[in-house]
């Protein structure tokens, strides 16, 4: 009886993992389209279009983070905690956490205004990483797109890179704690996001 219960529980957990993963993939494709829409609006000097499409993108990133939080297989917290558990001192714990954060974002060979070529080498769709890093990183890029159109002085590439690298360095050095247990209902959250974004994407507008 006990092995059968374990088997059933395992099937249930895999089912919810697959549901979250499938919804994530569909939303990621939609996010790609929103990003392309933002860039296209910028190329057309459409300030309103850039503001509108970029805001939709950032809202979607927040919602995807909420989805990923519904299953422990999509959490940032366990990755960081497992790294810290290998440490034998507080100094090692700090270093190992920094290593873990660096592996999934930008490697250390960057300057103040030049990003490492080894960036997003181990990128993940994990709750905590989207809301804590990818969303703010995208927001910086969109901010410079908007400022470029508002001021009419071109895209300030070096300034953008400088803020991007600074954000990354700060996130890698931070010690904030991320959940190691899932929260939320995978089925209801997936239904909500399907109705909001995927049932008829052309009508999604805020």
Automatic annotation (TrEMBL):
Gene3D superfamilies for the chain: N-acetyl-b-d-glucoasminidase (1.20.120.670)
Domain annotation Alpha-N-acetylglucosaminidase C-terminal: ranges: 17-196
InterPro entries for the chain: NAGLU, NAGLU_C
Official protein name in the record: Alpha-N-acetylglucosaminidase C-terminal domain-containing protein
Provenance organism: Actinidia rufa
